[in-house]
Each structure stands twice: as structure tokens, then as C-alpha cells.
## 1
Amino acid sequence: MSTESTARTESTDPATEVFVAHRNLLFTVAYEMLGSAADAEDVLQETWLRWVDVDLTQIREQRAYLVRITTRQALNRLRSLQRRKESYVGQWLPEPLLTTPDVAEDAELAESVSMAMMLVLETLAPTERAVFVLREVFDFGYEEIAATVDKTPAAVRQIAHRARKHVDARRPRQAVPRSAASAAVESFLRAVETGDPQTLLDVLAPDVVLIGDGGGLKQAALRPIGGAETVARFLFGGIGKNKLPLSLAPTVVNGAPALVAHLGGELDGIMTMRIEDGLVTGLYYVRNPEKLTRVLSETALTLR
């Protein structure tokens, strides 16, 4: 039974009420840990199964306890997910989410779930990722995190410091206002629609990198493509090979402006961008159909 159906059938049960009240938070924690909505949902199911066996009268901080269960389950799944990635065909990108309007309005939340940040989190070891997410994103205390990852508070401080330095060295240099991000995405869209390579080059940073994720189910570049001219040739070459008409439209994915692509009227993929100083420095195109199930309806995320 899913957590939603359980909530409907046992709406007066205290355990269910607490779980439902914190569900969006737990999903956000699991998603930031895993980069996969499908795996995050599985983690929530596992969390629920453990939560219903807990004696609530013995739990002082129910929110913290639920986050602890979720993080531990996510850590277990993250380790198995890493093994799956080793056999993944081509490049692996996080699963994009069509997010509710409030996510984009919360700058801190939007940055934490942006595709650029999610890719940075992918470079952390599992425990480092858990510590960083809980400390830097959700502002949990060192003692709470220590109890979650089975480390001492002193060790957690060291891990947090190391992870923060690692992330700061790789994250975008500064947060991009939504208006500036929208303008860059619109410029990119116009450039592709006009088919003018120079117009596209004006939008791309010289060292732009394109990463495609087809998962072996759709054609995509097996390795990252770097350099503005190379990326422009690849994009226009791919569009030219399409026998079906390609259409791009603005959308909001992971709290940021993005593009949804349709090929012959059918959903083909989601393109998100990393934008710095008004130019596109990263292009991330998810074509794997198994990762496009959460772009048809909005997903609620929260830090609280």
C-alpha cells in the first residue's frame, strides 16, 4: 500500500498524520541525497514501514526522527545506486522534477535542487553527501547529524567542513536571479529556433559543457561535449538529423527555468542549464524516458 493510500484510509492515526505532515520534507531530503525521484519514493515507503512500528510517546522530536530514518534509508540506497551507475549506459543525470511555483520563489531551496547543484552533490561520497545535505541545506545540528550517520559530532564537523570546501569549489560562483536565468533560457531558445549558429554562440560560454542522458533507451552523447563551437555543431547537427519536427517550450524544472522538448508531438526530454554571468556554462539534456515521469505533474518540495 502506498503512503498516500495509507494516509487516506488511516487519516485519524497519529503516526500517519505526523508522516503526512512531513512527507514533502522527507521526499526533499531523499531526493537531494539520491538525485532520483523514483528512489526517493522507495525510501519514503521504507521510512513509513519503520515509522509505524515506532512508539510515538518515546519520540521527543518527531520531525528529526523521521529525517533520521529517511537519511539512513537513503544512504543504504545511495550505495546500491552507485553500483547501478557503474553499469549505466552513457552519462548519468539527476531525474528532473516539474516543481511548484513556491520552489522557484525560495532561492535557498531552488539552488539546493538545481541541476547544477545536484551534479555537484554527485561528486561527494555517500556520508559526505548526507552530512552536507542535512547541515548546509536543512540546517540540522551536528549532534543530530552524528546520530543519523553513526559518527561523533567532532567527526561530523570535519566531514561537513571537507564537504563544504568540495562543494564551494564546484558550485556556480554566485546565485543567478530568476529573471536573468529566464532571459538566458529565452535567448538560447530563440537561437535554436532561428537556426543561426552565431546567435547560439553568443549565448554559450566558451567553455560550455553539454551532458546528455539517454540511459541506453534514447540516443545521447556517451561523453560530455565541451566548447561552444563543438556544442553548437552537435546541437544543430542533431536537430538537422531529426525526421520529426522538434519543438521547445519554457518550463520550470527543479526550481529554475528550463526547456521541455517534444519530437513529433511526443515528449522527448528536458533541458536544464547552468548559467553564469548571463551565459550558459552547462547544458543538461535528460532523454531517458524512465526519468521523465515527474515532469508531467508538479512535485512539492520544502526545507521545513
## 2
Amino acid sequence: MPLDQKPVPAQPSAVSGPASGPDAEAPDAAATGAAAAAEPWSIRQAGPWTHRDLAANGARFHIAELGSGPLVLLVHGWPEYWWAWRHQLTALAEAGYRAVALDLRGIGGSDRTPRGYDPGNLALDITGVIRSLGERRAHLVGHASGGTLAWVAAVMRPSVIQSLTVVSAAHPRDLRRALLTDRHQFAAFEHVLGFQRPWIPERRLVADDAELVGRYLTSWTGPNGLDEAAVHAYRQAIQIPSTAHCSIEPYRWLLRSLARPDGIQFARRMKKPITAPTLHVQGAADPVLLSRTALGGGEYVAAPYRWRLMPEVGHFPHEEAPEEFTAELLDWVGLHKE
């Protein structure tokens, strides 16, 4: 049975609705609230998209898919899952793209495997999903930890990446340098430091209906913030069994590998120039990844590169300013169609 069918005791979702499918209408949170109250919360929120599972890189991955045309693969960050891209799924499909939002390994409706949370393997998950979708290339969009993996995928499998859009994520070498030399960036990663202890972080993340995750989400945004339905959904998703553990394993690798041979080898590998046209989006008010840490990613891109700093936007540009962000994304992928 898929893991997303066995969540913690169900709470009604403000965005759940009738069965999903390609002909269903997008749900309105206010209009569907009463109907949703009678249904258990599910990772597979209803909408115009289609949910399905596919195999790649030795695991099973859940995706939400909408539209037809050139593939745009959307990869979430922490503590989100595929639903973070609900605004972009519909906009991309309307613009003539095949939009696919992926649940990363260990999160949402995808498999929770005991191993495989290093950046190299997670990047191969992404490129494997592109192949499993029957596509030769894709426009890859990644946010936060998903953005880090987008950088890595573009280095490891350059022929698969048609264009790259990185959101709230520094190039891995810049992030490594900042964590080693910039005390302000190190302090901004306080939550990542807390993740290094065994078992205690998992328990704290799910305690009191994932209250800590809610606090992270609200404190990491700019003036616009996230809507209550989004915060509720992410708090529910982290409570699916094993998700808290699996979702923070990449952060454990990040810090523990700084002085290990595998981490040093990874940093050296990431020197390779990226050949995909790259859009780099950063919220000016992001308290997690400082703008000065993200700035400079173009040093590693041997292709067209655009830096976009969004004022008064925090860690989640795609949700805090969805119209502005989506317009930027559509312009970028439109410039780099085959």
C-alpha cells in the first residue's frame, strides 16, 4: 500500500476536494472547505492534475502531472512536497508545457528507502524520473534542497537538462564555502545544526501536530507569508510515518560530509561548468539562505545566466509571490525551447 495512504490521524484539509483528473476544475480553498471537512487529509490533493507513480533509480516516485508539450519538472524543497508547485502546474500547462511536480525520495507519496539520501543519488532520482516520463530532456526547476539537487543534476547529466531554474539555493560549492567561513550563514542554518542529533529532531518535528514545522514556515517568509491551507498541508505531510527522518537525512549528509572524503570529492566534482541556461531566483528577505551566499552562482555556468532578486520575498518565492515568480519562469523556459 502506498505510504501516503497511511498518514497520521487524519485532519481535514482546506484544499482537499472531489476526485482528481485531467478534466477536474482547480479547487478553491474557501468554496471546498466544508466538503473537505468530511474527508481525511491526503497527499494527493484534488485538482486539474493527474496523480500517478513511476519507477526510477531503484525506487517508486509519486508525481502530479498536467498539460502536454515540453517537459518542465518541478522539484520541491524542505519541508514541502509536490503541492508547493500547485500555482506553477496550472500556469505551465496553460502555456503549453507538460508540467510535472515530483515528490522527492522519502517525502510525500514517494518511497521511503533506508539509504540513498546523498546529493548524487538524489540527483539521479530526478534525471531517472525524466527518463521514466519518456522524455529525452526537461526544463528543471528546483527550490531550496530541490534547487541544490538541480545544480547537481545539471553537472551529472548535462544532456538531460534543457534549462535550469534554481530557487532559494546556492551552488553547492558556494554553500559549502559559506558554511565554513560565514558565521551569519552558519547561524541561519540553525535548524540544520539541530538535525544532526539522532532521533530527537524527528520527534520534535512531528510533536504537537508538527507545530515546529509550522513555526519554520511562518518565520521563513516575507511580508506575504504562506496561506493557512499551505501551512496545514505541510504540517500534515511531515507526519506521514518515516517522512521526518527521511526528509532531513540530506541535511545530515550536508554537514557531516564537510570534512569527509565523500564530501570533498563531491565539492571537486561540482567544479564542472554547467552547460544549461540558468535562471537563479532568490528572495531578498530569505532568512535561511542569505542572498550573499546565493549570489555568484553564475561563476559555474558556461551558458546564459540570469540572476533575479525578488524584494520583500522570503524563502518561498514560488508561493509568496506566485504570479511574479511564474511570469519569470515562463519567460525563461520560453527563451530556451528547442
## 3
Amino acid sequence: MRRIGWAAAGLAALLGACAPKGERASTSAAAKGATLAAVRERGYVTCGASASTVGFSMPDKTGYWRGLDVDTCRAVAAAVLGDKDKVRFVPLTGQQRLIALQSGEIDVLPRTTTWTLSRDGNGVNFTFPNYYDYVGFMVPKKLGIRTPKDMTNASVCVQTGSTTEVTFTDVSRAYGLDLRVVAFDNVQATRQAFFSGRCDALITDASALASVRATQAPNPADYDIIPANDEVAPLTPSVRHGDDQWFDAVKWSFQAMLMAEQLGITQANVDEKLKSDDPIVRRFLGVETGNGKALGLDEAFAYRIVKQVGNYAEVYDRNVGAGSPLKIDRGLNRLQRDGGLMVPLAFN
């Protein structure tokens, strides 16, 4: 079993601050506690994104953005503006993403960013993990690599500005592998270099590797994905430090998708659930008031998220699960009641 360094499953919701080392919160709208007002005046939420990670964040052939991270952002838009499509997506590299958040270029960063200690103390707040992952290596099957210990002197394609740089170094040192780095500053260049044979392995989050293998490999069956270590990587949306109201709005927008799954509320039955006599369901959907007011939102914010975006199971399935080309098992991303790490919190 992979270890979770900072808590057991029931404590996965603990919060903290984060950002690139050395950066501090700017005198932006967030620092003044006015992000929600600024978003409403502007008329849309601005979200950091990756332009090339199928299943998580990528525009389709018509230019419409799709993915698990995209839907996380759309849930926020549905909650605070009433319309999941009142969003703008800003493509960012691994090096750019936290800087763009700190500078005020974006309102929220749901772009495959791992919650780590070094990022958790310098002016940016992580919300809740929207996907639990692990760092892996993708290798050609013909090399016969089964574990990292088989990779002595291998060359590895690495994207700079990512936590995988640290993992690469740690794995090489831990096993005395003398791994050789082939570094690139953007996602596409890193992937293209791997498939063109410039390196023996590609290291990044396993979910991204599954996406790359399914969509870019000449023959997906020719490649294996192996764990780099036994650590879990909680991919977690974040906001700028200094605006608790916006922090809360983003946190509870994601929580609404988890609680909807917990309560069995879906896009198809949410209207019928408005008639429920269950007090928990009634509070969740805003029939009984109070939750919206506490966040500075209207009472129907959770209803709109489910109606327009879906519960977490629906979002997971269509983007990365059984209903997607990736078909990634829920695994750690199941609800806590089902043996996973996703913990719905009380809406009261």
C-alpha cells in the first residue's frame, strides 16, 4: 500500500497555505478579500489549465475545454456565477502555474499541482485534493523494466518546474541508479522527446502518463507505467493566500460534488431530490437555507453544481474513468465509505 505522509484518509481534508518558495501574496484582489466581488464584476472565473492533458484539461476539436480539472473550475463558476460556462482557461506550464496564481493572472489553479510541504508555506492556499495520484515512469516494454531498480544509467525525460524533478533525484540516489536527466521546460517537448527515443523513460504523474499513452503513443500496448516510489501525490486546486471567502467558495464547490455522490444525487435526479423529506438533502440543495449565506453565495449553489456539472462519480467517469478513453480505475479516488480517500464534509 502506498503511504500518505501527512494523514490517514479521514484527515485528507486538512488545509494549508502554499506557493513557490520565495514568493509572497501580492496586493491583488485576493489580498484585499475581494476576489468573489471581482469575479462577479468581471463575469467569469479565470482558471489555470494545461492545454494537452487528455482527461484533465484540454480543449476538444471545437475548442470547448474538457477534463476533471476543467470541471472542477466549472463547478466554481456554477456556484458563484450561476453558469458553469462563465469561465476562461489560461494554459500554463509547470513553471508558470503558481506564479500566475500569485500574480493575479488567474483566480484558481486546478491544474495538476501536487500539494507538498515546500509549496504549503509561502502564500497560496490549497483547497481539497480533486485527484489522488502517484509519480510513475513510462518505459518501453522492450527494455524489460519492471521496477525503478532496473533502470541503472537510464536516461529520463523530465519537465522542469515540477515535483517529478525531486522524485527523479530521490529515486536515483536511493537506489544508486545514476539516472541521466534530459530536461525540458514544457509538457509537449518532454513527451515528444520520449516518443522520439531521446530518453529511456518519461517521469510524471501516473494519470498524465496514462493520458499520454492512450493519446500519443504510436502503439499504447508497447509501453508500461511503473510507480517511481510508494508515495501518494494529492493533486489539489489552489487559490491565493489572503481571501478566506474565496478560499471557502472554491473548497465547498468541490465538496458539493463529493457530497452529491455520497447522497446519491445525480444530474438526472437532482430536480426530483428537491422534493426530498431528508433534512440532509434539503440543506445540501438549499431548500432549507443557511449554507449559501455562510459562503456569501445564494442557497442553490450546490444544486447548480450537480445540475450543470454532476457529482464526483459522474465527473470522474466521463473524464478519466470507465466512460473515457483512459479508463483509470477509481482506486484511491473512491469515497471514503468505499475504501478511498475522498471525504465528503457536512453541509450544515
## 4
Amino acid sequence: MKRKTTLFLISVSSSLILGLWLGAWYIGIQPNILKNFTNQPIADLFSSINALFAGFAFCGVILTVYLQIQELQDTRVVLDETAKANKMTADYAKENAIVELFRTYCSEYFQEVKNSSMNVLIPAVASKEYFDFLVSRFFVAEQKHLNVISWERIKEVSHYKNYDEFKVGEQHDRYKLDELINFFTILAYQKDAIDVIGRCDFSYSWWRPMFWMIAIAQDSRYHSNEAIKFYGTKPYFKEVVKRLDVAYGLNPIDNIQEMISLIKDHPKLNKQYNLDPNHLELNSWKV
């Protein structure tokens, strides 16, 4: 529609200017016609036509500016549509990435990862001594050794029949816990996907108290041991759990006291996982 209007204006203007030009030539070659209207020289008459052409030139400038404005508006519309399309593509890619992670989480293989992780996490809740051993194994230096004494509390919550069986299966289960932590790390660091994560149930309410226990203990152990600092890398899991808390609309924990408040009356940790009272002692976390 805009193009037809522009072509119409150009055609009318061109026809009018051409008609005036031809009329001026006709009058110029028949001077007797002018004498009936004016005694001015022909040159003065054509000066007015020059002024008319200057006026049309100015109209041409205005038309050019108008066309440029229309072109800019059209370009702006195209850019807005492109931006919307790009945003839709980015949103789709973001949601698709979370969906793929959720499929992984629900897969048969990952079910083994979750079960094996719980075989480690529940005993870690029941035995502070085993928990300290577990946390020490996240670092290359100052690793603790598994002590048979911890079995006294572990056997109350473990499906393993005896300590020797537990000792053999524990290493396998602990490696699966590494996979689980890496999975949630990848999930937490999905770019601009916090809102999508919050809409998917990764059973975070089950993992959260035990994740915070590990994160706080890792952080405390790292900052209190120079050998670990020298040979290891700074733990990242505390930041991971903070990001997940934000995604699920929870207030992240800042210190050991807040973590103890989270676990001391927790229904799962106390009633089913037989929480070791030593976990509630503030000094026991300064390792």
C-alpha cells in the first residue's frame, strides 16, 4: 500500500512538472500570446517557472525524507520481529536443555545413581564419623580412613548385612554420589534457566538438607587446612546448592548455625535416617 502511494505521488509530480515545462516552451515560441496578458520580458516569465521548479525540488527533498523515515520504520519492525524470534529460540533451547536433564534424571541408569547415593548419604546422616570420612574423600589431601566403629550407627540404616559388605559396596556408592553432585552442578549452572529449573521437580527437597551438610563441611574443611588448599581446588558445591535454593524459592543457608537449624528437626533425617546428635554440635563442624 505504501509503495503504491509513493509511485502515485511520483507519477503525478512528474506529469505536472513535464506539463509546465512543455507549456512554457509553447508560450515561449509564440510571443504574441504573452502580449495579451503582460508586457514583461519572456525571461521574467520563465523566472517564475524556475521558482516553481525550485519549489518542486524542495517537495522532492521532503518526499525523500518521508521515504527514509518509512524505511527506518520498516527496518525497526523487522528488527523487533527478529529479536522476538531470537528470544523464542533461546527460550526453547533453554527449556529443552532442562528437559533433557530431567529425562536423564528419570532414566533407568540414573535411578541407580540416586539409589547408590542414598546408600552413602543416609549412613552419613546416621554417623558423624562416617560423614567426616566421606567429606575428606572429596579432597586429594588429608583423607580420612573408614573406621569400623562407625558401623555401629550405620548398620541401623544400611541395607548391607555387615561391615565388610558395606566397605566393599561403599566405594562404588561413593563414586555414584560424585555423579549425582556433578549432575546437580550442571543443572544449577544452566545459563538463564533458573525459572525453568524451578518448574521441574528434581526431588530437591529430599536432597537439600544432605547437600547443605556436604557443602558446609567441604567449605569448612578447605578453609581450615593448608595442605588441602595447596593440593586441592576450592570447593564449588556450596554455590551450587545456593543456586538451587534460589531456583526453588528457598532462602540459601549462610553459615553452620543455619544448617544445624535446618537438620535438627528435619522429619526425614531424624525419624528415618537416625540423625547422629554429633551433627548438631557446632564444634564438630570445625574440621
